[in-house]
Amino acid sequence: MTGKSGGERHIGVLNGFAAYGMWGLVPLFWPLLKPAGAVEILAHRMAWSLVFVAIALVFVRRWAWAGELIRQPRRLALVAVAAGVITVNWGLYIWSVNTGHVVEASLGYFINPLVTIAIGVLLLKERLRPVQWAAVGVGFAAVVVLTVGYGRPPWISLVLAFSFATYGLVKKKVNLGGVESLAAETAIQFLPAVAYLAWLTVRGESTFTSQGPGHVALLAATGIVTALPLVCFGAAAIRVPLSTLGLLQYLAPVFQFLLGILYFHEAMPAERWAGFALVWLALTLLTADAWRAARRLRAAEVKVPRVEKPTSAAVDA
């Protein structure tokens, strides 16, 4: 790996850590927005995110990408798909946190790396090593155990996992910078969000102006809470492989799981612990295999002989 590509990957990893760290703590924020419902919070999240990103773009003075994107219908369609998928993810996550399903939501992001790897195999034709196949199999067994334990499939976890894995794949194909891609996605979301908020206001069901200035400030802050980790994620998605993103994703569900158990005091019956234990086993296999692969790659790079550039005298000769 060249110095430039190594530097880009390093930037991507740092952005990934920042994104998943913030996502891991965000369950503490959504309950503060009650009595607003999940859909109202989602609409504010979409609208205020565009405001925040527009300010960021004014600051960095990067607008040329917008004209290029408009002239590329295929990329624009992919941006629309990304906007739709992340809207589903956002809305379901807000609802799950505010209705006491933080642990099940965290499971979705534990499963996410396995889903990301599966997408890499099915759509990108990536080859898995035997340990990775074993991890995917253990993850599938975990879903079966949890389905038996819940008495239903863990649908919150599965929808969150598949929607966010799809989002990562689409962003990788769009290949826009973090700020630019988020601006494009929120621009698509903005008008429907504002229309819904206007409809709530006309019906007298909006909480935006009825709960005091603190509530107004918190709803407006959804733009910052949403945009910052997504900008970091976008910057990571175009710089590191999907498999690396899968490893970085562990940070967010660990925080979410601990918050669900220790802060929100959600129940953890034995069958749920068994299902989570299988998921953690699968992630341990993936992590160990990734470390071995990285060490082999570094060892191979060290053995590659350096090619000396010809001196000016040799060129003149």
In brief, what are we looking at here?
Helix content is 79%, strand content 0%. With 317 residues, the protein is mainly alpha-helical.
List keywords for this structure.
317 residues; mainly alpha; 79% helix; globular; disordered C terminus
How are the SSEs ordered, and which strands pair?
Blueprint: H1 3-25, H2 38-60, H3 64-70, H4 73-98, H5 102-122, H6 130-150, H7 155-174, H8 178-203, H9 213-237, H10 242-248, H11 251-263, H12 270-303, H13 312-316
Helix pairs in contact: 1-9, 1-11, 2-4, 2-8, 2-9, 4-7, 4-8, 5-6, 5-7, 5-10, 5-11, 5-12, 6-12, 8-9
Descriptive notes:
The structure is a single chain. Helix content is 79%, strand content 0%. It has 13 helices and no strands. The two termini are 32 Å apart.
Category by helix and strand content: mainly alpha
Distance between the amino and carboxyl termini: 32 Å
Shape from CA axes? Answer: globular
Q: Give the helix proportion (percent range).
A: over 70%
**Unreliable segments (pLDDT under 50, ≥5 consecutive)?**
311-317
The number of helical elements comes to 13
Order of helices and strands: HHHHHHHHHHHHH
β-strand number: 0
Percent of residues in beta strands: under 5%
Cα Rg: 22 Å
Main β sheet profile: none
Give the overall pLDDT as a whole number. 85
